[in-house]
Write a structure and sequence with these properties.
About 45% of the residues lie in helices and about 15% in strands. The protein has 4 helices and 7 strands, in the order H-H-H-E-E-E-E-E-E-E-H. The protein has helices at about 5-25, 30-50, 60-80, 160-180; strands at about 95-100, 100-105, 115-120, 130, 130-135, 145, 155-160. Bound molecules: zinc ion.
Length: about 190
């Protein structure tokens, strides 16, 4: 036998439950119909009160009407209220100006930034720029310029292009760590 309970026990429990339920119904037979009648009469009374005309002082009627109008406009305003502005998240921080260059990048699924691209930061220009070898100041003092072909803006950064981009990446990571990235989020249009 797989079951722990004997079949006779199950039958006994079922019979006992049935008897208890029947007993309860028998005991309640006198008050169930009056209870239903009472609930019904409450509904009937409420309905006839709602549909009947009442003698209400004019000032009370005016007050209630004004309250009704006010409530109506409050409800309409609540539905029409613009949604709360969404708080920016760290992964919304995908561009900032640094070393005279506007940097843009992306994050992968693990939050590691990639595809760092340089742009001209001049207002209204938004031209992509490329790092080029800049002026030579001596051994170990190379520079990289990000000359804009459109407006001629030529920011210069110390170090090779690789060093500059490494510096930018570290600055982005620092901003993300300390929370200052929020100061570089542009308000969404
Ligand atoms: Zn430009």
């Amino acid at each position: 036998m797989a079951s722990n309970e004997k079949p006779t026990t199950k039958i006994l429990v079922s019979v006992a439950s049935g008897l208890v339920l029947a007993g309860l119904l028998y005991l309640a037979r006198h008050w169930i119909p009056p209870a239903l009648r009472w609930i019904g009469s409450v509904f009937v009374t409420a309905w006839s009160w709602f549909t009947a005309s009442h003698a209400i002082p004019g000032w009370l009627l005016l007050l209630l009407s004004l309250c009704g109008v006010w409530c109506f406009f409050r409800i309409v305003a609540a539905f029409r209220a613009p949604p709360e502005p969404v708080e920016p998240q760290w992964h919304d921080f995908t561009e900032f100006e640094f070393l005279g260059v506007l940097w843009r990048w992306r994050y992968d699924g693990r939050g590691t930034l990639h595809s760092l691209v340089s742009f001209c930061p001049q207002a209204g220009c938004d031209m992509q720029t490329y790092g080029r070898l800049g002026q030579y100041y001596g051994a170990g003092r190379e520079t990289t310029v990000y000359r804009c072909d459109r407006c001629g803006h030529t920011p210069e950064a110390q170090g090779s292009q690789e060093q500059v981009e490494d510096k930018v990446t570290r600055e982005i990571q620092r901003l993300l760590r300390c929370g200052d990235w929020k100061n570089h989020i542009r308000p969404s249009a």
